[in-house]
């Protein structure tokens, strides 16, 4: 009892629940991609990462933001970032679960399992996943320098996290970051001006000296980075350790940390290289090819991370509206709120399906069909899932009314999700860059067939299952055939994404989900905001399937 009133009709926090056990769409998608796989590890993680105690770590890591320490008290440069202890707890959890380089050391299915773990962890805290994702993407690229790979692979795959800034030889596990973006160009990395000058041959191959800067350089406390720089032979990829093998700090000056909209637990810095030592990965002039290989993997994580955040936002909205009363009924029982919730549930499940499908394409590294599908799925999933995330976050926030907009020392998770959401759309290739990449992919043809043929074969799995699907998909081959006009690229990316999502829902979601998705997204029986599904939709079944508890 407060002094003047009783606090009533406020929802309980969504905590101490199993993130995996309650995520029916994810479980069904995994049963499809990994039939018969043991769910126990996922259930264990789901329980652990849903605990209130872990949520407190996420809140603390975000409200006590990282701090840059450029010098020690004696005036010597130290270039360190200090994090709240909860940041290290969370990063340790993610590494222990093998969400970084570990799948590269495991067998078939490891990338799909990791994708599921990545999505679940996102619901706990997304910003510590930045170095995790970059480590995942950088690991296979190191093969371009067999000596570096031999020394670092085991530690990137290890499930031990060690935050110390000491030589890699003294650490049981390491993390890696990436530096491409410079002030004058991020999407167009050809504009990079950082110079690489050959210094000497070493046991790690050619060592270069780097002079220049990076405008965005996230997680600067990582043990090493892959960076792009201009060598005499053109733009090239380099391995840049933070601490050199002899124990001295490399010449990487952290200028300042970015003051960001969200992603607060993660430090994103601006750096200068004042003669830093770096070892070449691959040939001189092959930097863009090298970066594109990594891009596929970080773009996967953008789609996975956004799908995870969408699921979390939806879960919070469902949890709140199931408790809050207004106008004599629970909000979730109000017909119009049911429409909003069901519409978001369809969007969330479709995002999960598309992101996991890309993970499967990455898992099957040696399968020629999956290689073609990777090429189309990467830009499409990154573009569409990330675009839809921010819209869904806004709508989910509105379901909580005014409370959704309030953070209250980090307790209001919905506001944090909303601030985080646009990031995945911008970094690692913003929306237009993804749509343009799709056009390039569709022009790709080779011995194993073309990307366009693979796409048509993939969509064939749902042929005949719904008239709206058939009509929608029938128009795609002709559009793909003439897919060269850049101005149409976003429309094509959107429509291919919707067709792929529908075909996946056909394969691993109940009929009422597939039917409602096809009718609204492909059949045009829908509006331009969430909550505009037609009256005949199976609202109750869709909402019940999505409930987080
Ligand atoms: C929090 C955060 C952390 C980051 N961390 C890192 C990091 O660790 N390492 C790193 O290297 N980078 C990092 N980035 C940078 C990020 O990857 C870039 O900001 C992004 O790639 C876009 O580059 P840009 O900022 O130079 O924008 P620009 O390249 O100038 O693009 C601006 C807009 O123009 C569009 N555009 C570009 N070219 C075309 C075209 N041909 N046709 C139509 N539209 C076009 C883009 O889609 C975009 O919408 C980070 C960014 C953020 C926000």
Could you please describe the fold and organization of this structure?
Strands 3, 4, 5, 6, 7, 8 and 9 form a seven-stranded mixed β-sheet that branches. The chain has a two-stranded antiparallel sheet with strand order 1-2. It has 549 residues and is of the alpha+beta class. Helix content is 49%, strand content 15%. It is built from 18 helices and 13 strands. The protein is globular. A hairpin with a 5-residue loop joins strand 1 (67-71) and strand 2 (77-82). The chain has helices spanning 24-33, 40-49, 52-63, 85-96, 110-124, 129-141, 146-157, 287-321, 335-363, 368-399, 413-426, 431-442, 451-459, 467-474, 476-481, 489-508, 511-522, 539-546; strands at 67-71, 77-82, 176-179, 195-202, 205-218, 224-231, 234-241, 252-257, 268-281, 325-326, 329-330, 445-446, 449-450. The structure holds flavin-adenine dinucleotide. Flavin-adenine dinucleotide is lined by residues 177-181, 185-188, 216-218, 260, 263, 268, 423, 426-428, 430-433.
